[in-house]
């Protein structure tokens, strides 16, 4: 084996090593981005009412399932075609690109497609939070297919696939505008066309607060998204090694440290910006604003993280978080658009802000400042925002406008009041009123022993209004005295328990109707006094608001199955 053969073999080994590391890097980043769907699911589930949680989770599952198929079958190829048709002559060979998509020639092509797909699905899932609580599932799924197959790929064609915006120098590193800005504008448009949830606005246009059911879920989702975002931003530096003339060197990975730092600074200052504005406006640091601000800060730096100075990350993140409360209030109170999960302030306006801020904080700007260069860059970035925004709004508005004209945009008022979990899926996310842990009542508690008829031989109805968290104790206490038959209802009301002020995304609202459960127990062979004592002992916390117990006589009863009446029916 001569020296040339040895050198050739060594270069080949280096190329294999570089390719393997590069592929592994892209796949790990891809898996991190996919995991962001868990974050979106939790974030959105926490911001909707408990009766709509399963619907929101289902939409997130279907977004990925139908969206990735649409992108695979149509969207990936369409983005290349749009890039070819709108880009500079000679930049692309559309026949070769399309053939490569139909049957990729190597493992790099397969991995590259998957990396593009998780970005597409991120854009798609943003929209679900804006139309939560009233949009028909079939309409949302239809829109997801069209977004993944057409709407998003056209935006990619304009930019990353070498289209018109790429030719003029539009800068979007990891999707600040291409993914998030586009998704935020799509969500805002869809929410406007579909219309607000029932009771969200009064006839005079004033807004009513409809709090979500779990800040815990919202914060957990936020942290999962922030974790996955490192794959989103840092992973876009998608080439670790390069081999040139038999030597190995860092490729795009040379920027990975800057991207990681900018991403971290953006999320931190975004949370601080939103929290500070909340504190100044309401005197309290709103938890949901802090969570949403963290995400807004991430969005703000996503498109520019590869090429800005670190002080720029502090400024952009801070502004992206600070703008959130103001933009949300404008959308809610001026436009009267019901953006349930604040997708436009988090993704739309923050993405636009970061995109337009690029010329002011770019590394090149601070290495040699030129006002002309800054203004020229601003013009290019503005053109990109306008083109992407116009296409997104028109396309999204058309899809949901047609659905609205056909009466398919939203569920019926009755189904909306009932909740989309039951109306659209036939499930209850929180079936908390089941009996016991196993769902069965011990046989010894099914009926008390006979003896002298209690209650003077009459039937009594014992009704108790108690705290929801005492329900399990009440059920056990009733079972222990042999009174297992009961009816439980979710109710709200007021009594001696004082009203309090609640806050949701910086807005205060009066809570004077407290959530309770009503337990009704009809007894004949068990003394009503025993039932009262059992409930009182189980429900008592010693605080105002423990509830009341009422006893009324029942004139008669009839068992449906047997036709027995009176005490025998009970």
Describe it for me?
The chain is of the alpha+beta class and 570 residues long. 59% of the residues lie in helices and 9% in strands. The protein is built from 18 helices and eight strands. The strands form three sheets. The chain has a four-stranded antiparallel sheet with strand order 4-7-3-8, with helices on one face. Strands 1-2 form a two-stranded antiparallel sheet. A two-stranded antiparallel ribbon has the order 5-6. Strand 5 and strand 6 form a beta hairpin. Helix 10 crosses helix 12 (343-361), helix 12 (343-361) runs antiparallel to helix 14 and helix 17 (471-480) runs antiparallel to helix 18. The longest helix has 45 residues, at 3-47. The radius of gyration is 30 Å and the shape is elongated. It starts with a helix and ends in a 16-residue tail after the last strand.
List the helices and strands and how they pair.
Elements: H1 3-47, H2 53-86, H3 94-102, H4 107-130, H5 137-158, H6 164-167, H7 176-194, H8 215-233, E1 241-244, E2 247-250, H9 256-282, H10 287-302, H11 310-334, H12 343-361, H13 363-367, H14 371-405, H15 413-418, H16 420-425, E3 459-466, H17 471-480, E4 487-493, E5 500-504, E6 507-511, E7 514-523, H18 528-539, E8 547-554
Antiparallel strand pairs: 1-2, 3-7, 3-8, 4-7, 5-6
């Amino acid at each position: 084996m001569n020296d040339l053969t040895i050198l050739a073999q060594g270069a080949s080994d280096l190329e294999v090593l570089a390719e393997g590391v590069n592929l592994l890097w892209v796949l790990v980043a891809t898996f991190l981005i996919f995991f962001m769907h868990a974050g979106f699911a939790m974030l959105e589930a926490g911001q909707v009412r408990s009766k709509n949680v399963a619907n929101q989770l289902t939409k997130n599952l279907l977004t990925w399932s139908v969206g990735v198929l649409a992108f695979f079958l149509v969207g990936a190829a369409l983005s290349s075609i749009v890039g070819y048709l709108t880009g500079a002559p000679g930049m692309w060979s559309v026949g070769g690109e399309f053939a490569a998509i139909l049957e990729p020639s190597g493992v790099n092509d397969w991995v590259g497609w998957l990396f593009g797909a998780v970005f597409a699905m991120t854009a798609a899932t943003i929209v679900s939070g804006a139309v939560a609580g009233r949009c028909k599932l079939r309409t949302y799924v239809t829109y997801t297919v069209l977004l993944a197959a057409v709407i998003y790929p056209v935006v990619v064609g304009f930019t990353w696939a070498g289209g018109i915006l790429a030719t003029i120098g539009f800068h979007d590193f990891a999707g600040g505008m291409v993914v998030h800005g586009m998704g935020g504008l799509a969500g805002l448009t869809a929410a406007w066309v579909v219309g607000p949830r029932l009771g969200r606005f009064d006839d005079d246009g004033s807004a009513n607060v409809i709090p979500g059911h779990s800040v815990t879920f919202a914060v957990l989702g936020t942290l999962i998204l922030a974790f996955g975002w490192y794959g989103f931003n840092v992973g876009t530096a998608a080439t670790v090694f390069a081999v040139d003339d038999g030597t190995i060197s860092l490729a795009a990975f040379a920027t990975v440290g800057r991207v990681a730092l900018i991403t971290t600074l953006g999320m931190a200052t975004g949370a601080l910006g939103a929290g500070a504005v909340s504190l100044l406006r309401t005197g309290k640091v709103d938890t949901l604003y802090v969570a949403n601000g963290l995400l807004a800060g991430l969005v703000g730096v996503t498109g520019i993280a590869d090429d800005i100075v670190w002080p720029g990350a502090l400024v952009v993140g801070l502004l992206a978080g600070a703008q959130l409360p103001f933009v949300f209030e404008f959308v809610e109170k001026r436009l009267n658009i019901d953006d349930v999960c604040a997708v436009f302030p988090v993704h739309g306006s923050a993405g636009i802000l970061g995109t337009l801020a690029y010329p002011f904080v770019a590394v090149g700007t601070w290495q040699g400042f030129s006002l002309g260069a800054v203004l020229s860059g601003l013009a290019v970035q503005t053109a990109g925002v306008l083109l992407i925004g116009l296409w997104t709004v028109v396309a999204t508005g058309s899809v949901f406008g047609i659905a609205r004209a056909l009466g398919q945009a939203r569920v019926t008022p009755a189904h909306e009041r009932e909740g989309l979990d039951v109306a659209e899926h036939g499930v209850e996310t929180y079936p908390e009123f089941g009996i016991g842990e196993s769902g069965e009542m011990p046989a010894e508690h099914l009926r008390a022993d006979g003896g002298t008829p209690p209650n003077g031989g009459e039937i009594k109805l014992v009704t108790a209004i108690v705290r929801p968290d005492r329900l399990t104790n009440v059920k056990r206490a009733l079972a222990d005295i042999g009174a297992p038959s009961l009816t439980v209802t979710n109710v709200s009301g007021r009594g001696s328990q004082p009203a309090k002020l609640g806050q949701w995304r910086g807005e205060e609202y009066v809570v004077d109707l407290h959530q309770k459960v009503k337990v009704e127990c009809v007894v004949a062979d068990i003394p009503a006094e025993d039932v009262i004592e059992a409930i009182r002992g189980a429900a008592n916390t010693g605080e105002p608001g423990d509830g009341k117990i009422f006893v009324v006589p029942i004139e008669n009863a009839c068992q449906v199955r047997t036709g027995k009446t009176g005490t025998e029916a009970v």
